[in-house]
Structures are given as C-alpha cells and as structure tokens.
Amino acid sequence: MKLHLHHPWKVTPEEAVALQKRLSRHLVLEDRLGPVAHVAGVDVGFEDGGRITRAAVAVLRFPSLELADYALARVPTGFPYVPGLLSFREVPAIVEALKKLDVDPDLLLCDGQGIAHPRRFGIASHLGLLCDLPSIGVAKTRLTGTHGEVGNERGAWQPLLDKGEIIGAALRTKPNTKPLYVSPGHRVSLPTAIGYVMACVTRYRLPETTRWAHRLASGPLPLSRP
User: Fold this and answer.
1) Is the pLDDT of residue 223 over 50?
2) Cα dist from 12 to 85, 88, 96, 194, 210, whole Å
3) What 3-state class would DSSP assign to 53?
4) Which of 61, 57, 121 minimizes the C-alpha distance to 95?
5) How far is CA 155 from CA 36, 200, 202, in A?
6) Distance, CA of 172 to CA of 167 (rounded, Å)
7) What kind of architecture, by CATH, is found in domain 32-218?
8) What is the pLDDT of residue 225?
9) pLDDT, averaged across the chain
10) How many whole angstroms from its chain centre is CA 54?
C-alpha cells in the first residue's frame, strides 16, 4: 500500500494542531467507496515503557469476517502522549504495518475517532486521508460532543453533536453495554459508517475488526498468517 499524502512527523504539538486544521479541509464526508470485500481493523499498543509503538492491522473478509491477512510493525515512539494528537503518536507505526499487507483493505475501521474530534481530524480521518481509503472511527469513549439517551436495543443510536454540528453517533452495539462512538473518517457518510460497524459486530460490544486488531497489537500472535 502506498501513501497518497506525505507530511513531516517530527513536529511540535503546536505544529501538529495547525496541521490537523489544514488537513481537515481535505476530508470527504460522503460515500466514495466501491465494493467492500475486505475490512481492516487497526489498533496500537506500546512496549518498553512506551518507547516502542506496536501497530497491528487485521484484514477480514467481508461480510464473513474471517481473518484474511494481518501485519504488525514496531517503531520507536516519536511523539508524546497529547490528548487530541494521538494520530501523530500512532499513525507512523500503523503506516508501516499497512505496507506489509498482502491483502489491501477496502475500508478501515480504526480504534479511535474520525471527525468526532475538536478539530474534526481524529486518527481515522488522518489515516484515511494519508492512504486515500474509506475510513471510520470506532471509539470506546467520547472525546467531544453531546448526545441524547441511547435506546438499549442493538443498533439504537443518537447523533453526537458539537456546536450544532452532527459529528458522529453514540451507537449501542449490544444491549446493556456502553455505546460506541462512531464517526466518519474519510470518504464515508455517517449512515454508511453506522451500517458497516453494525455489520462487523457479532455477539460482542466491539466489532470483530477491533477485536482482531487489539489481539494482535497487545497479545500473542497467531502461529501463521492466513
């Protein structure tokens, strides 16, 4: 996989904020995706006291959700932990993992925010724009915005609002569990993002893309690639 956009990673937090504001203007928040045969989950863990970033990408066949390919990359951590700037800490390792794939995904589901971000440029948006891939943010916690009470039934959702703008959805993927926060990253509309997240959820709260990627990023690896 080749990057379609390049920018420096050795930046200060102030420069990173300015870069987010500039790049966010290039996001496409409508459906521009073709047939989806493979979906990828992306997650990141850390080793050696945070000095090494371990990124995992799991590619699943869609809609069967069987593992088709995966890749792992370890790179030195080059950016501090700053809320709202996590993509500058995590994306360099994710990009290295994406380059190792034999099966290219048609859609990325990232463990983090898309446009549900103070500057409308979370990790899913950043990664989607860099790779020119449709991407969706699927976060376990809310970063910004407010929403109404979400019904307890599977698939119930409420719009996530910030300054009068719909930036995502609080989505109940499993009854009696906390909602997930879904937002478009790049080249995907909110209704389509919700649909794909629900299509990737089985009997757990988290979609299978996230579950596979988290297992690879933080746990033991499978004995062999598919």
Assistant:
1) no
2) 11, 10, 22, 34, 30
3) strand
4) 57
5) 21, 12, 12
6) 17
7) 2-Layer Sandwich (3.30)
8) 58
9) 94
10) 15
Q: How far is the C-alpha of 56 from the C-alpha of 41, rounded, in Å?
A: 8
pLDDT for 186-216, tens place per residue? Answer: 999 999 999 999 999 999 999 999 999 988 8
Helix or strand or coil: residue 168? strand
**Stated length of the chain:** 226
Residue 76 has a pLDDT of 96
Q: Is the pLDDT of residue 122 over 70?
A: yes
Distance CA 28, CA 15 (A): 23
Query: Residue written as tokens 């499993």?
Result: 174
Which string of DSSP letters, residue by residue, matches 59-127? EEETTT--EEEEEEEEEE--S---TT-HHHHHHHHHHHHHHT-SS--SEEEESS-SS-STTS--HHHHH
